[in-house]
Amino acid sequence: MTDKFFEHQTISSKIKALIVSDYFPKYCKILLKYPQEKIRYIDLFAGPGIYEDGSISTPILVANACYADSILRSTVELAFNDNVYCSKLKDNFEQNYPIGSFANEPHFGDKTIGEDPFINDFLCRQHPDKNPHPSLLFIDPFGYKAIETNVLTKFLKNWGNEIFLFLNIKRIHAAIENNKFDELMLNIFPTTINEVRKNRKYTSSVEQRLSLIVESLKKEYEIVVPGVFFTAFKFQEEDSIATSHYIIHFTKHPRGYELVKQIYYDFDNIGSTLERDGTYTFDAKKMDAISTNTLQFDDENISALSEALKKHYTGRKISAESLFYEHQSETKYAKSHYTSTLRFMVEKSMITSTFIDSGNHSVSVLISKFCILQF
After folding, report:
1. Helix axis angle, 290-313 relative to 320-327, nearest 10°?
2. b/e 333-349 (16+ beta carbons within 10 angstroms → b)
3. How far is CA 147 from the centre of its chain?
4. pLDDT digit string, tens, across residues 303-357
5. Phi, psi of 174 (to 5 degrees)
6. Are 350 and 306 in contact (CB under 8 A)?
7. Residue 194: pLDDT band by 50, 70, 90 thresholds?
8. % helix / strand / coil in the chain, to the nearest 5?
């Protein structure tokens, strides 16, 4: 990593940090529906916490969100690692949160990921019963040297554990065909590397080859962790039309899948059409284009989802809440998509909606057990 990387925060880096820091406290709230002794946030490439231009990065943003909630302040344990910026991060962190701010004191490590056996041993540790410290792992390497799928999948198998992986897709795309990086690519694609190399020859565009890489990574996790929910969010380059990075979320629970899709939806600034674009997207070049694009593309999502719902539920009566939790685990659509689509379907007389509580509702559909839909 160059010394200049942390001089100035790009808008894409800011969105990445906001996605993770928005997700983590909500993930904790899901876990805390059951008693938890401790919930961990682990960042293996934490950086200094604050850019030289004063922008706040993920470690401080996550700490801000946890400190603002008294329950999280007493439950969360923050663990940061960076082999270059450890001391600077600790200083920056303690200027904001002196020792004693959190019930569980944060950890600051300076290990080199991929070279220190303690880290891999820690991540691979298995808990055959309930995991005593469910953890969200954020891994944001400068490249790909520390991405070891066999290690990360073992971590993910433990109850409550989830992962955000920030993937430099451009560098992986270039390295796949370079024999010098065979060992590193095998770490990422232990069972599918040959398939990736073979199938990429039959794709007609770079974007299709990048999608192939992401799909192959998904397969690797599904082999080891059956039923894993894999959700990608892509970043378009700031100076071209190409995709530069993905942030990928892994969870075993449909509630985590529900949550991350909604957060991705909130940060998608092109109004992605999921049937066409494949995933949610942030394009730094279109910071001012949200209002002009969202309606157009949401219309396409609404059309596609309404057709899927009609096909699946025609003739049935079901609560909006039951429909959402039953159907969303098989799609890429967020809760906002379901709400908009069901209201559209009521407006177009495709379904009827009846509230069975005593509330005075100003909208036709809410994702609620009291909102009954008749297809």
Report:
1. 100
2. bbeebbbbbbbbbbeee
3. 16
4. 999 999 999 999 999 999 999 999 999 999 999 999 999 999 999 999 999 999 9
5. -70, -35
6. yes
7. very high
8. 50, 15, 35
* Mean pLDDT value across residues 71-78: 97
State the Cα–Cα distance between residues 338 and 302, nearest whole angstrom.
8
Query: Alpha helices of 99-228 — where are they, by DSSP H?
Result: 117-124, 149-157, 169-175, 182-188, 193-199, 206-224
pLDDT given at position 10: 86
Rounded to 10°, the helix 206-224/149-157 angle is 50
* Selection from 156, 149, 151 nearest residue 172 by Cα: 149
Rounded CA-CA distance 250/220 in Å is: 12
Helices 254-267 & 335-347 angle (0-180, nearest 10)? 80
Give the integer Cα–Cα distance in Å for 366 and 375: 16
The token pair at 60 is 């401080």
Q: CA 107, CA 82: separation in Å to the nearest integer?
A: 11
User: Would you state the pLDDT for residue 291?
Assistant: 38
Q: For residue 149, give Cα distances in angstroms to 60, 104, 186, 221.
A: 27, 29, 9, 8
Question: Nearest Cα to 227, choosing from 280, 277, 156?
Answer: 156
Q: What is the 3-state secondary structure (H, E, C) of 141-161?
A: CCCCCCCCHHHHHHHHHCCCC
Q: Does the structure show a pLDDT above 90 at 200? A: no
46 φ, ψ (degrees, to nearest 5):
-75, -25
DSSP-assigned beta bridge partners for residue 319:
372
Share of the chain above pLDDT 90, in %: 71
The C-alpha atoms of residue 254 and residue 248 are separated, in whole angstroms, by 16
Residues 77-89: tens digit of each pLDDT: 999 999 999 999 9
239 C-beta neighbours (distance < 10 Å), count: 9
Lowest mean pLDDT among 85-89, 273-277, 280-284: 273-277
Point out which residues pair with 164 in neighbouring strands: 138, 249
